[in-house]
Every structure is written in structure tokens, then in C-alpha cells.
Amino acid sequence: MMKTSKLNQFVAIFIALFMTLAVSSCSSDDDDDKKFDVPQELIGTWNLYGMQYTFNADGTGYISGDFDDEDMSARTVSGLSSRSGRMTLKFSYTYNASEHSVVINCMGEKERWQIVELSDGLLVIIDSEGERMTLVKEGAVDPSVPDTDYAPCPLSTLIGDWGVAGRAMYGFNSEGYMKWFMADGEHFEPGTYSYDAEKGILDTSEGGSVSVRKVTDDIIMLWDNSEAVKAPFLLTRITKEPFTVGDISLLYDKTWTMVGIATLDNRPAYPWTYYFDSKGIWSSSVQGSAMGGSFRYESSTKTLVLNMMDDDMEYKVISLTSDKVVLSVDSRMMEMVVMPGK
């Protein structure tokens, strides 16, 4: 919630007065000679919701923030500085040590802060409206900037399924094939990729190009190489084996059906089924039309070769499990699943 109590009202009043060049000093004569027993921890600049509040030891201070008004950013007057849209407003304040409170006086408006905690670069207050707010002292909290200058990711690390919060988004194998996971993180569309491991540049069949950096074995950082996206994107490992090519016997004695809608003579033809037996005979059926022949499997290249009428058709086996097979043929992907029995 972007609420900063009455201090924002001070800023609003200041803007209105500034636009009419009727700004007057916020310090009162009554405060000039007052001595301040201000705790040293309070002195400095505090950040809250993009605004900075600076408390000086002499009972003066400043509110700074960014404003978009082009007219305002071009002017300067007493008590006000302006550069690149950033405005600074001066105020005076008093500190009550017995009550642990600060009263800020600016342009006739007063705001009381009840200090709840003042330590370790944190200032916790309750304002005049009863709102509790936490301010962080500038320089007191300096989190390390995440390192992005990692070495290119080696191919051996890239292999696997990667995603966010346990949901897979992309998968890569060592032979240039990849998965584009659907929103459920389970179903996917197969694709291809090329990878320059020396430079860490990954190009996909979809036309995308990203730089890949290895953070750890289970964390990689992607930079989109397009002009539109300049920030890195972190992915965590889901699995190390995105494409499982099991023994060819997993293909035998089952009715497989093609995922999606197959076509025959430019007409929808679904389901298109295949059957492979352990003797090396395959058959296929679509809309009552049957075909078949012999087949062999070349395990060294993971290639399934179907022969029909002395013509060979080669299918690269990308993934093979007990209930799903993904094949590549002529730069196209096809997926088949086992058709359950009735």
C-alpha cells in the first residue's frame, strides 16, 4: 500500500504553492534558537516508498521525491531544488526525548511521528493517523546486487527440464531437441534448438535467441537477446532427463494413436493408429484404410525405420516411454500415445 500519511499531503500542498510561485519558508522563528536532543541514529536520510526524508542535527530536514510535471521540473525557488523531475522540500522538526516522538512542521502543517523502534538502520513509527510505517536508512541496508556475469552454460548442465516453482517450462536433450511445455507443466510441444556452448547462445526453432548462463547445476539464467527484454530470467531444474528413450520393446504389442488431428488427402483422419509387434511387423489404420510392412530399430542412432513396398521411412526417436513416443521425421514432430483398452 503506497501510503505515506500527511507527509504526502505536505508534498501536495508544496506542489500547489510551487505552481503559483508562492512558496514560503517552512522554518519558524520559534524553532531557530531551540536546542535539540536528537538521537544520533535519527540523523540521516530515510527511504519510504520512493521518497527520502532527511533529518539534520539542527532541527531541519528535507523531503525528496520524483515528480513528472515538466513545468515543475524547469523551475527553482527558495527552499526548493529541481533536477530531472526530482523535487526537494525543506521542513523543520522537534524531538521529544521523553515521549520518543518527532513533530514535523512544514508550511503550517504538522505531522507527529511516535517512534516505535530506532535501531540497525530501521525506523518504525506510528503517524498522526495511526498508521504504522517502517523506514530504511540510506546506506544502512545495502543488499548485494545479484551477480549476472556468469560463465556460459555448458551443454551438460543445460540438459534437463527447467521451470519455475516446480512447473516445467522448457526441456532440452543433447541431440538438439527441446520441449515447449503447456501451462500445466506436463504436456508439451516438441521442437528443435541449436546451442553454441562456447558463447552460451541458444537459438530455437521458434526463432527465439537467448543467452544461457550457469549459476549452479540446478539454476540457469536466461537473457533474451531481443531488444525488448534486458533483464535476466532465472530457471530452476525440474529433472535431469527431459527425454527418456527406453528400450524399443516398450513399443511392442500396443495400439498407438497419433496426438492431434492427422490428415489423409487433406481430409481430417482421426484416429490414426499404429501397431508394432515383437516380430518386426508394423501396421497402420486410418478411417478404415490399412497399410503395413516390416520395421527395424537402429539403437545407436535411435532411429526407427519402417519399410513399406521396399521404401524406407526413417523416424528419429526423441522420447519413448511405456505410454508415449515422440518421433521426428523431415523436421516435423509427431507424438503418439497408447490407446487404452475398453
What does this structure look like?
The chain is mainly beta and 342 residues long. The chain folds into three domains: 5-137, Lipocalin (Beta Barrel), CATH 2.40.128.280; 155-239, Beta Barrel (Lipocalin); 248-338, Lipocalin, CATH 2.40.128.270. Helix content is 7%, strand content 49%. It is built from three helices and 27 strands. It has helices at residues 5-19, 29-32, 155-158; strands at 44-48, 51-55, 60-66, 80-83, 86-96, 101-106, 109-119, 122-126, 132-137, 160-164, 167-172, 177-181, 188-196, 201-204, 209-216, 219-224, 232-239, 255-258, 263-264, 267-268, 272-276, 281-286, 289-298, 303-308, 311-320, 324-329, 332-338. The strands form four sheets. Strands 1-2-3-5-6-7-8-9 form an eight-stranded antiparallel beta barrel. Strands 10-11-12-13-14-15-16-17 form an eight-stranded antiparallel beta barrel. Strand 11 and strand 12 (177-181) form a beta hairpin. The longest helix is centred in the first third of the chain and has 15 residues, at 5-19. The two termini are 57 Å apart.
